[in-house]
Automatic annotation (TrEMBL):
GO terms for cellular component: membrane. Pfam families: Abhydrolase_6. Keywords: Hydrolase. InterPro entries: AB_hydrolase_1, AB_hydrolase_fold, AB_hydrolase_sf, Epox_hydrolase-like. PANTHER family: AB HYDROLASE SUPERFAMILY PROTEIN YCLE (PTHR43798:SF31), MONOACYLGLYCEROL LIPASE (PTHR43798). GO terms for molecular function: hydrolase activity. The keyword Lyase does not apply. This is AB hydrolase-1 domain-containing protein. Residues 24-255 form the AB hydrolase-1 domain.
């Protein structure tokens, strides 16, 4: 993969690209950086697509002064730097929220969307008693400034799943999570992020072909959100991954690779028409 740097006023966005063809832009979760997508970028490039991923401000190797900015504006700047008019966007969690906000602002620049455990600006949040318990542990670690404990708790929340056994996902995947999230936790605070308009009430306006994915070990609120989006977004296909939590691109990369490859093939073959079964599909682990 080739590294790149994009200079903005007060910021430098760092990322990687690989392959040639129509662009697929990968947007990382809020506890990760662009490295969560390396396997999917490889698959996209091997199938004739131009894969691009970058660290947003506050993550990975990107840097930023504490100034007013918008993640959507930054995404537009990345596209413009590559002279890209329209792309497919693959986003997880907060990255998915950025993709949806961009799609609502620039619908003509979105060929398709893959949204995994996605954030949606203005979406409601609720938690079970068990989930609220781990959220309270996280809040306590944050208030005490214990970033090492924060990293461990967030690995339980987002990598293992809030209702799963802590340490369910181990080895190199867990070490990668710790490294990505540690970088985000130790970055200087950015206090002037501009709020995006409410998207929750407007998701039905996103008409681009969309694949919705959520793991059945993810937060209950995100599973419920996934169901709502599958019923509301007019050109969407929904799949629930068995035995996966919030970051299946590193937990179950082979499954996500296969689903992404099929989605890209469908877009390329159907010239923008993505005919799907409206019912949500249960996808067992391989």
């Amino acid at each position: 993969m080739d590294e790149f740097a994009i200079e903005l006023d007060g910021a430098e966005l760092i990322g990687v690209e690989t392959g040639d063809g129509l662009p697929v832009v990968f947007l990382h979760a809020g506890v990760c950086d662009h490295r969560m997508w390396h396997e999917q970028m490889r698959v996209a490039a091997e199938n004739g697509w131009h894969a691009i991923a970058y660290d947003r401000r506050g993550y990975g190797d990107s840097t930023s002064a504490d100034e007013a900015f918008s993640h959507v504006d930054d995404l537009e700047a990345v596209l413009d730097a590559f002279d890209i008019h329209a792309a497919i966007f693959v986003g997880c969690s907060l990255g998915g929220g950025v993709a949806v906000d961009f799609a609502l602002r620039h619908p003509g620049r979105v060929i398709g969307l893959v949204l995994i455990g996605t954030s949606i600006t203005g979406a409601p949040w609720s938690a079970t008693e068990e989930e609220r318990g781990i959220e309270m542990v996280e809040e306590d670690a944050w208030e005490r400034g214990d970033l090492e404990m924060m990293n461990k708790v967030q690995a339980h929340e987002w990598l293992d799943g809030p209702r799963a056994q802590s340490g369910r996902v181990g080895g190199a995947v867990r070490e990668l999570f710790f490294d990505m999230n540690a970088k985000a936790l130790t970055k200087p605070a950015l206090t002037q992020i501009e709020d995006e308009p409410d998207a929750w009430s407007r998701v039905g306006q996103v008409t681009a072909p969309t694949m919705l994915i959520v793991g059945d070990e993810d937060f209950t609120a995100l599973i419920e959100r996934h169901e709502h989006l599958s019923e509301t977004m007019p050109n969407s296909f929904a799949a629930v991954l068995e035995g996966a939590a919030h970051i299946p691109s590193i937990e179950q990369p082979e499954m996500i690779n296969r689903m992404l490859e099929e989605f890209l093939d469908a877009l390329a073959g159907d010239e923008g028409e993505f005919d799907v079964d409206e019912e949500s599909e249960e996808v067992p682990p391989e």
